[in-house]
Amino acid sequence: MKKSVDIRAKASSANSALFRVLVSSIGCLLMTSFLINVLYHSRLPSPQSDLSQLISRESSYVQHLNKTLWSGTNKAQQVEKRNKKGQILHHSITAIKQEDLRGVGDDATIPKRESDQANRDMGQARQGREELLAILKDAGVEDIDVASVLKLPLWSEVQALYGDGPVVYGLDTCEDFRANIPREDASIGTAGLFNTGTNPFNMYLEGNCIMPENEHDHHGGMRWQVPWGKHMLASRKWNNTAGHDHKVNKSNVLPVVLIRDPYSWMQSMCKHPYATSWSKNVSRHCPNLVPTPEDRAEFSELGTNESIPVRINYPNKPADYPSLAHFWSDWYQQYLQAEYPRLLIRFEDLIFHQKSLLSIVCACAGAIPKQDTFSYVVDAGKWGSAHKG
């Protein structure tokens, strides 16, 4: 766990996932109006109601755990994932240098910093970024040069986009889950669309939390995915079973659903569509929700459609939607309207508020810390057959 890994000898695209997300998140600031429109379209409830639930219904419980979770004086650890052969799939990182981030933060959508950046000293570079640097330091990344620091957003920009702390929807169902699900079989299962951080979140869960009385799961009640498939529609919960989960009682699994802002999610889908297919020309423009004249000329199958249809090639039965935005909206709407205990959490809080978020999620399900020190996920989060089921 504590072994230093020199990331300069590795491909930068795989070795600085946390840092890259911190940088690229600022691109979303330019798309706030688009985000608001899509959120309105999906009729998401106001997160304020859930913050009040956290303050009122579960205040003493969660606040107590927040004071004691991972309170050990030992240095935080990083998750190091290995396969069955013992090969490292997920490395720890202790240093970040300019050459490791070549191309990161240079996108036209990311605000340009002052032209004399290279001449700044570390003290100047740190100003306004102290909170983000504290996250990296706590995670074990202590060797970072000025050029890399300057690629980080200002904390005020992060706050303007995502607020001051985690937003969790569904806290009013926690008491029901803890009171009515047998503790020896209670578990947490990860769910979310493609490209929403489901793998890193599961690694955070498995590395930090445990259901103390669970007798049936090999990972202390921290399931890699919900037994109906982490990317599957919630409406198919009872009709679809993933992998080797045919004997799992689905009612005893608390789904924790990751949601990512639709603009950055669509950008990721353009690069990595996984089981999703639609008529697109990434070199010209993507995401393409409404067909342009060029789209109609290139893709005759669009016909007179007012939007560009999307198909999700789920096992056994595909799902079709009028557009990528419709898919995002309906997928989350199904979990929002579910009548069983579940939590919806933001992917971005997994980047900026790891400890607080994990404290709330684990407390909700009745889980306890796995150890005194908190374990961070810093390297790339994709590993294994991540998108089956």
Automatic annotation (TrEMBL):
InterPro entries attached to this UniProt entry: P-loop_NTPase
Keyword annotations of the record: Membrane, Transmembrane, Transmembrane helix
Membrane-spanning residues: 21-40
Name this protein carries in UniProt: Uncharacterized protein
